[in-house]
Amino acid sequence: MSDLGAPFQVDSGRLAETKGTSAAIRSYANLMVTSHIPMADVLNVILKLKNITPSNTLLHGAYDAMISTIEADRRAAFDRDYVNGQVEYQKGNAALFEQEIQNGTDPDLKEFARQTLPKIVDHLQRAEKLAAAVGGRLASK
User: Fold this and answer.
1) Could you tell me the domains of the chain?
2) How many secondary structure helices (H) and strands (E) does the chain include?
3) For the segment 58-86, what is each residue's pLDDT rounded down to a tens digit?
4) pTM of the entire structure?
């Protein structure tokens, strides 16, 4: 198990801190950057102590494609693609952490997942609210 999206969250968050068109999006992006760096650091310590190499190649291509898309996006398109990407990412991450809690064999990783899942659920709820706001804003233009 690994927080596959920590680099994605930090990279996409740094883009959104400057490119997001609303304070709400920039604030959410800042939360992603500031909360995912320490989360990844904690996980990396656990993985290193146990000599576990995370396999994150499966989703890397998808995250790289998302980063490329939002790098090219402007204004409303950026907001929409960033926020929709966040919703999808947080849903996938929540599922990974739930799977680890239920089926994981390593007690430290299970505890990390147990402690971290509420933050991921909070981030998902925030992303869904942003998506609803962005959707409404785009529909009214």
Assistant:
1) 6-139 (1.20.1260.10)
2) 5, 0
3) 567 777 888 899 999 999 999 999 999 99
4) 0.84
